[in-house]
Amino acid sequence: MSNLQKKNQTQSDADTLAALQELIDVVAKLRSPDGGCPWDLAQTPETLTPYVIEEAYEVIDAINSGDKEAIAEELGDLLLQVVLQAQIAKEYGQFSLQEVAQGISQKLIRRHPHVFGDVLVQSVDEVRQNWEQIKATEKGEPSPENQKLSTKLSSYARKLPPLMATMKISQKAAAIGFEWENIDGVWDKFHEELQEFQEALAHETPERQQAELGDLLFSILQLARWYNLNPSEALQGTNQRFIQRFQKIEGFADRPLSDYTLEELEALWQEAKAQIKRDRG
How far apart are CA 131 and CA 125, in angstroms? Predict the structure, then answer.
C-alpha cells in the first residue's frame, strides 16, 4: 500500500469513527431526561426487541432487492438498535457500546486461530468445527460432539425464529434416527394432528387449542422437510401472491372495499387471480 493509499485509509477510518460518534451522541440526546424524546425515554431493552427483529428482516429484504441505497439505510436502522440497546444498558450501569465492540473483536480473534494464531485449516468445515469447539470451551460446555442433543435443541428453540427452529430441531432429531420410515408416516401424523386440532377447537380450552395448533404446524413443517421445501420461502411467496391479488382487487373496485359484500369480494378475488394468470401468459 502506497503512502497516499495509507493516508486515504487513515482519513476514511477517522471519518467512520466520527460518524459513529455522532450516532452515539444523537442516541444519548434522545435518551436524555433533559430535552430528550419521550418515546425513546420510555423504551426498555424488552420493548425494543420487536424492532431488532423487524430491522433485521428489513435488512434481509433490502439485500434481496439489490438496492444499495436501501441496504445502507436498513443497516443504519439496525445499527441504531445496537447503539440504543447499549445506551440503555450504560444508563443501567450494565455495559457500554465500547464493551460490546471490544467483546466481539476479542471473540473473533479467539475463534479464528487460523487467522490470528498458528492453527492450520484445510476447509470451511474445519473452520466451523474449530469455532464450535472454541465456543463450547469458552462457555464451559461439553464439546459439540459430547453435548446432549436436548441441549442443542433447546438452544435452537430459544434463539431462532419458530419456523427455522422447527426445521433445525427436526433435522437434528432425524439425524440420530428419530424419524419416520417413509413419507406415509409423515402424512399420517399430519392427518392425526389436524383431527386433534379440530377436536380441540370444538371442545377444548384456548390453551389446548393453541397447543394443538402448534402440533399441527410442526407436522406441516415435517412434510416440508421430507419434500425438501423451504417453509419460510413458501410462506413469503404466499404473502406476496396475496398482496399482488389484493392490489388487483383495489384496482378493480369502484368504491371502498368495505362497501362490498363477501360474495362480491370473492368474485373480485377470482377475477384478480385470472388477470394475473393472463398477464403471465
Answer: 10
Can you say whether the dihedral through the CA atoms of 26, 32, 36, 40 is positive or negative? Answer: positive
Would you say 247 and 271 are in contact if contact means Cβ atoms under 8 Å apart?
Answer: no
CA–CA dist 193, 216 (Å, integer): 5
pLDDT in tens, 69-82: 999 999 999 999 99
- Which amino acid is present at 82? V
* Residue linked to cell 386433534: 196
Nearest CA to 260 out of 246, 273, 274 is that of 246
Q: Which three cell numbers stand for residue 23?
A: 450516532
Radius of gyration of the chain (CA): 26
Nearest C-alpha neighbor of 20 from the set 70, 77, 79: 79
Cell of 64: 434481496
Q: Between the CA atoms of 45, 49, 52 and 58, what dihedral angle is there, to the nearest 10 degrees?
A: -150
Closest CA to 155 of 138, 137, 142, 169: 169
Rounded Cα distance between 43 and 31, Å, is 9
Q: With a threshold of 0.85, does the pTM exceed it? A: no
